[in-house]
Amino acid sequence: MDDHILFDGTGPGGWRWTHLLPAPETEAALLADPEVPSSATWALLEEDTLPRANQIGGGTLLILRGINLGPGAEPEDMISIRMWITARRIVSTEIRRLTQIDRMVAEFQSGEACPSPGAFVLALVEMLREAAEPVLDDVEDRLSVMETTVAAGARRAAMAKRAALAALRQDTILLHRFIAPQAQALDALVRTTPDWLDRPDALHEEAEGFRRIAADLDALRQRAQVVAEEISLAATERTNDIMLTLSVFSVVFLPLTFLTGLLGVNLAGIPYAADHWAFWGFCLLLAAIGVMTMWVAVRLLR
After folding, report:
1. What's the pLDDT tens digit per position in 38-52?
2. Are 30 and 124 members of one domain?
3. Are 94 and 65 in contact (CB under 8 A)?
4. Among residues 100, 160, 105, 110, which one has the least CA distance to residue 130?
5. What is the pLDDT of residues 10-65, one digit of tens each?
6. Same domain for 134 and 80
7. Structural contact between residues 168 and 243, judged by C-beta atoms closer than 8 angstroms
8. Which domain holds residue 59?
9. Fewer beta carbons below 10 Å: N end or C end of the chain?
């Protein structure tokens, strides 16, 4: 088998699945394949894709996205799988390895291949949905922790989570970017009902599953916005508290600074300058003024 072909085998009933890897030979092989229209070929080779389903010629172009389950990978970095589907054949390509495709290859090689292209697509879509649901649960758990922290009034702890909240909001945006059009692509398949689609009702249920995930992601994004506003409000309140404290100290020390500055000019004629009790008397006066000013400032700045 050529290096650019991950798998090329025949399933029950004589239908064939060819899966191609990113390699220089892939483009030439697709262009030379008489069963694949040229417009579908370029879509199969496109690097940056959104999920969609189109009827082209006598087949269906289906592009989906799956959760990146690779070691150390970010789940929101979803991997695309591109397929050209007819009643007798599937031609698929991937830019990066998708775990669900490897599972499908293993099933083919073990003699447990799907009985038809329609069953293959349904099984693949089901695996993609099952892989997306734990990621949604993880995002919701992380957000719930932040909501609990903010609701408990732990302002310092909440503000410390601003970076984590920003990462979470980015995750929900990226996941929603691919999950929402995935549901629309599956709906388009159900509406057109190509001849290879064996169970449109089951595919409709999978589309509903992706639509629910997209709705949950949208709700999580709005909840994250509320948490972000609460954290911003906590930061503003903390700043106001600091400014209030500084204002109190400024009000208290303003008259004291004036008096010490006035009597510190060292000019002749300062009253009681020669008396031995003058220094301590002045200190007592400053203390009395300071207490009185503190009392007035607290009442006015409440």
Report:
1. 888 888 988 888 999
2. yes
3. no
4. 100
5. 888 889 999 998 888 888 888 888 888 888 888 898 888 899 999 987 899 999 99
6. yes
7. no
8. 5-235
9. C
